[in-house]
Automatic annotation (TrEMBL):
Homodimer. Pfam families: GrpE (PF01025). GO terms for biological process: protein folding. It is found in: Cytoplasm. One of its GO terms (cellular component) is cytoplasm. Residues 26-46 have a biased composition (Basic and acidic residues). HAMAP family: GrpE. Keywords: Chaperone, Cytoplasm, Stress response. Participates actively in the response to hyperosmotic and heat shock by preventing the aggregation of stress-denatured proteins, in association with DnaK and GrpE. It is the nucleotide exchange factor for DnaK and may function as a thermosensor. Unfolded proteins bind initially to DnaJ; upon interaction with the DnaJ-bound protein, DnaK hydrolyzes its bound ATP, resulting in the formation of a stable complex. GrpE releases ADP from DnaK; ATP binding to DnaK triggers the release of the substrate protein, thus completing the reaction cycle. This is Protein GrpE. NCBIfam families: PRK14140.1 (NF010738). Its main location: cytoplasm.
Length: 188
């Protein structure tokens, strides 16, 4: 074909050269210039940023839903937290109802006292099973962490100075935590 090109008249050869020049200029324009190459990483970064924003929004809404759900569960748990204790105390209430009915017709005071003692023991054993423990304050040294001093009286002897002489109101622990301080009288 190159031989044929040489045999062509000069105008056609120039025409062929012109078309090859046009092809080369078209090819040059279709190649990406440096400006487009610079925007390609920017577009990539913008896409990554939008992905990160989307992940952030999803995570934020998921965490917000988690907070709402856990606060609702906590409220529900607080409403029913004492249910176990109340159910355990229902037999004691039944016993008190029966005791009140029998007191109306009772002639024997000793039988009524015995019934009340049985109910008290039943109630106290249920509370002990749930972790309630009474404080032993009388005769022990005064401790401001578990005792509340109501008053001071002169100690009967020197060995009782600074110790609990009398207990006005019993204190209680619930699982080794003070839930009511013992109100005591201490010797001075």
């Amino acid at each position: 074909m190159s031989a044929d090109k040489n045999n062509l008249p000069e105008e056609e050869q120039q025409g062929n050269n012109a078309s090859s020049t046009e092809t080369s200029t078209v090819e040059e324009h279709s190649l990406p210039d440096h400006g487009e190459a610079a925007t390609d990483p920017v577009a990539k970064l913008e896409e990554e940023l939008s992905d990160m924003k989307d992940k952030y929004l999803r995570l934020y809404s998921e965490f917000d839903n988690y907070k709402r759900r856990t606060s609702k569960e906590r409220l529900d748990m607080l409403k029913t937290a004492n249910q176990e204790m109340v159910v355990a105390l229902l037999p004691v209430i039944d016993d008190f109802d029966r005791a009140r009915q029998s007191m109306e017709q009772a002639q024997d005071v000793a039988a009524v006292k015995e019934g009340v003692d049985l109910i008290y023991n039943k109630l106290f054993s249920i509370l002990q099973q749930k972790g309630l423990k009474p404080m032993e304050a009388v005769g022990s040294a005064f401790d401001a962490d578990v005792h509340e001093a109501i008053t001071q009286i002169p100690a009967p002897d020197e060995s009782q100075k600074g110790k609990v002489i009398d207990e006005v109101e019993k204190g209680y622990y619930l699982h080794d935590k003070v839930i009511r301080f013992a109100k005591v009288v201490i010797g001075a």
